[in-house]
Amino acid sequence: MCDSLLHLRSLVDTAKIVKGTTSLKLKEVVINLRSATSADLDLLRHWDEQPHVIASDPNDDWNWEVELEQTPDWREQLIAEIDDRPIGFIQIIDPAREESHYWGDVAENLRAIDIWIGKEADLGKGYGTKMMQLALARCFAEPSVAAVIIDPLANNTRAHRFYERLGFQFVEYRRFGEDECFIYRLNRLDWQNKSPANHSSS
Fold this sequence. Notes:
This protein is of the alpha+beta class. The protein is built from 6 helices and 9 strands. The radius of gyration is 16 Å and the shape is globular. The protein starts with 13 loop residues before the first strand and ends in an 8-residue tail after the last helix.
């Protein structure tokens, strides 16, 4: 479940979450998040074949044919779009309730995120940063969520720098199957301090 975010940046204008739909205006570009469905099967398979996606997540089989038909309450699978054009994928899970127990013995009230940009041509435009900000706002919109965790590959130093700029802090090295990963964590307070425009229910 390691991810493929690279060095992406730009300024946030507005962010909004309304009943499962999230959008963020990036200068003149609005990024929307919608639920992934079985209609996205071919798209996600295609993205899985892209070299930059393979490099960041070389050993996972997402089993899209099955997973897109399921909507457990501990998971969201989302497609990011600009003007109805898909640009990336986000998965948000409750790692304590996720049925494969990928994260092992993990505390409650956490969320874990997987995220990537689909086409290499869409890298470096700030889209990944905005997608991550939307995902974090979505996670922390639930008052009980204390922190978000992620697991980039240990050798993906560009992703490490990206997450650190968002306020994530390194926790530990961990091996997941064949993948050597770094675990990063973003606590709610750190998220609020890093992004003062984001407010949580307290």
